[in-house]
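Quick question, first post here. What does this chain look like in 3D?
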Amino acid sequence: MSMPIDARAAGLRDGLRGSLAAAALTPMTPAGEVDLDVAEEYFLRLVASGAGVLAVLAHTGRGPFLPADVRARLIGRARRAGVPVIVGVGGPESGQDGAVADARMAAELGADGVLVFPEPGDRVALHEAVWSAAGLPMIAFDLYTNPCPPDTLRRILDLPGVAGLKTALLSDAMGCQETIALTREAGRLAITGEDRMFGPSLLWGARAALVGVAAASVETTAAVLRAYEGEDLRGFEKASARLDRLAAATFTAPMEGYVQRMAWLAAAEGLIPESHAHDPYGPGLPDGERARVLAAAAWPSDRDADQVASLERVERLA
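> Answer (accepted):
Ran it through. Tokens below.
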């Protein structure tokens, strides 16, 4: 039986509609050391660049790898930025008990909601346990590494504590469309996490964004949302083309390398110092990768989609 949405979840759903949430990095040294002052300054700069929400300790922020005391301090620093804070909870190695403990901590520290990592096992029970323990509105998460069956998605979306669902299916356009449709049918907020299908996912019905590409390139991402909300189709096309080119350079094989690529961009944009632009948990990347990523980020904003496509055809033939 479908249950009505809880007032707390409805409040988060309505508050996030139309917003850009930056899936923030956790600035780290090569040894994985976190400087809280560096992190706080980074969070403030993301907000100043146009992020209306901070999503911390999610996949981009390597939340599942960080000890509880570091997680707690990062949540506290993010809250000082003056925008809603969504906290990633759980993870492949956390289990239900770990996700519940993470959610309780987030609630105690004043987070506005939690992003529930996909876990092996009973996903509905996972969300029920997180809600019962913490009472924080939840954003469910359909992730390409562990896609959620439609029937299970329907049951999760019927839970009273679920405010919305983030889809991040990477290359599964039909799956993305179905997930967005199911989310909207349930009266929840469809949130795109589709860095590689950002513009299309808006056209398919997503009404907010929570993306890793906004860990550095906030303005490039926000420009697509603004253009979509307006009536300038050509502007939307140009903004989407620029973001697509950047995402193609950062969200590519090896896919786990995207965190390091975004850290390079964040350093190049002055959001974090070079000393903390490292992802010790990701794969090694080949020589020349950083230069390629930074070249994509420097693409002139006044180029139109036809020029982008022409250059890409030349590059493929070279």
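Confidence is low (pLDDT under 50) at residues 301-318.
Residues 7-231 form a domain with the TIM Barrel fold (CATH 3.20.20.70).
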